Amino acid sequence: MSDPATITETLTKDHRDCDRLLSAVSLQGRKTDWPRVVRETEAFRAAMERHFRFEEEVLFPPLEQVAPLAAGPTEMMRQHHGQIRVLLDDLAAAAAAAEAADYVGISETLHFLIQQHNAKEEGILYPLADRALAGQGADLAARLAEMD
Amino acid sequence: MIATDGLSLEQAPPLDLPLRLFLTAPLFAAAAGVLLLWQADVVLATRWSPAALAATHLLTVGFLGMVMVGASLQMLPVLVGAPVPAVRPVAGAVHMLLGIGATGLAAGLLGGGPWPLAIGAATAALGFGIAALGLLLALWRARRRGTGLRGFPLPMLALMVAVALGAMLTLALLGWLVLPRLLDWVNLHAAWGLFGWVGLLVLTVGVQVVPLFHVTPAYPVWVVRRLGPLLFLALLGLTLAALLPDSAGIPIAQLLGALLAAGFGAFAVLTLWLQAHGARARIDATLLHWWLAMAALLGAVGCWALGGSTELMGLLLLVGVGVGLPSGMLLKIVPFLCWFHLQSRQVALGRFDLRIPHMHRLLPERGARAQLALHAAALVFLLAGLLQPVFGRVGGALLALAALWLLALLVGSASRYRAAKRTLETTSAGTG
Ligand code: HEM
Ligand SMILES: [Fe+2]
Ligand SMILES: [Fe+2]
Questions:
Q1: Which atom belonging to ligand 1 lies closest to the Cα atom of B52?
Q2: Is residue A31 part of a domain?
Q3: Residue ranges for chain A with pLDDT beneath 50
Q4: A130 touches A6 (CB < 8 A)
Q5: Is A148 among the domain residues?
Q6: Residue A88: which domain range?
Q7: DSSP readout, B120-156?
Q8: Which of A24, A82, A124 sits opposite B146 (nearest CB)?
Q9: Which end of chain B is more exposed for a tag (fewer CB within 10 A), N or C?
């Protein structure tokens, strides 16, 4: 087996997987299958929620313990999660109401917001976590797969 | 903000700073369009016409310069956690200096006399210098982390070389400096500006943002890590070759030119391939802007390979790539920034009972598509203008229209932002 994956690798890959779930939702004008859009939107939201819960419950607490200086940045990441959750709710509402124009507009706004958030985590916070948590990091990362 | 070993995840700069640059930039593209409308016959007939030189610098210094600085102010804090130091004075000064610089350079090159040229060159050089210093300083402070923008210093260095050469050319034109083989120096200046700055900037930013925003597979590692530095070295070689005697210099320059053409060609082909294989299939104005710009880039490479005219190449690179890609980017970045600042306000006020307008409400997609169509038509007519000047005039008019329509969309986005912000604040004051 290869080296256990780092936090940066595991969570970056999870970011991409979530991105793909959102971009796979397709609207086809009048022929849009809304029940399916609702299901796919829920699947995307569940994946995002799993990722956030991993960060907030599994990753950030030990990181804040070993590196108290990281508490500012993790707090900001939690705030971002809150902002993203607001849009996830809006997206689900647009799907439920079969509002195509709003769905597309919210989906794109959400996509940009998530990219902005992910860029900060991937470029700064995850590398910091890998350094600060050293060996423990890989064990933590492995726990993402066990979450549901 | 300071304590975490320089680790700063603070928010991007105040909205008015990038907006100021983004809302001024299209005016310079519009001015270039008007110049073409007025003098298409001479602009397109030869790159050496005063109007061609003026239009070139309206686009590069005025439009591209402002868009690049505005976007960098915004992206550096996000991508590498590195805010630009003294961002407000820096942004204000660069905005003013590039504005005066582009205007002065254009007026001077158009035959307005030595003073506008001298003042324009000095202010443009100062503006770019301050911008580069601020951006490089921010990157240097963040050098130990943030792998995101590893290649970013190279286009900035290329810009500095282009600016330094531009300053030398200006001194030569003013008769304050004797430059033998002036033509070689102009060509080097143009190469560092177009391939070094514009080309490497598109490459460095592209390999970062295309996979994220269009949800495509990543670029191959050699493109992300090596292609930029390789092309930069090729430009350095080209510069040195100009100092050699012709017998040695010309073949070397040919070889390095081929390397540059192949490198940018490969980037364009890869980008189109990745975008075709991305998960995000929605074809919108920005994606179409990318396709058009990559097609123009391939056209320029082909033109080079077939020994086509430099006027054709310049047009494809300056308008096809240099106006198209930044326009496509502005169509997204401005509504997103407006939305982002609105939502931050909403969170701060705790007003989740109110809905804020999403990106497409701030900047309607239909308007964006019309912008793309105007731009594409402008490019086609300008290309046709190389054969028949009257088409060039139409192309100039379309270029100006595309820029003004872009401006209208951006202003619309900003004013919807203000209206929504007022609603958030007044209703929250009323209900406590
Ligand atoms: C401080 C900034 C700059 C100054 C002072 C400057 C000045 C000049 C001057 C004096 C010339 C030659 C005019 C002649 O031969 O009559 C020139 C040509 C040119 N410059 Fe600049 N320039 C500046 C920035 C740039 C930038 C950033 C670009 C970016 C692409 C650029 C692109 C070009 C091109 C392509 C030409 C050749 C035009 C042609 O071949 O038709 N310049 N510049
Ligand atoms: Fe997160
Ligand atoms: Fe994350």
A1: 41
A2: yes
A3: 1
A4: yes
A5: no
A6: 7-143
A7: HHHHHHHHHHHHHHHHHHHHHHTTTS--TTTTTHHHH
A8: A124
A9: C
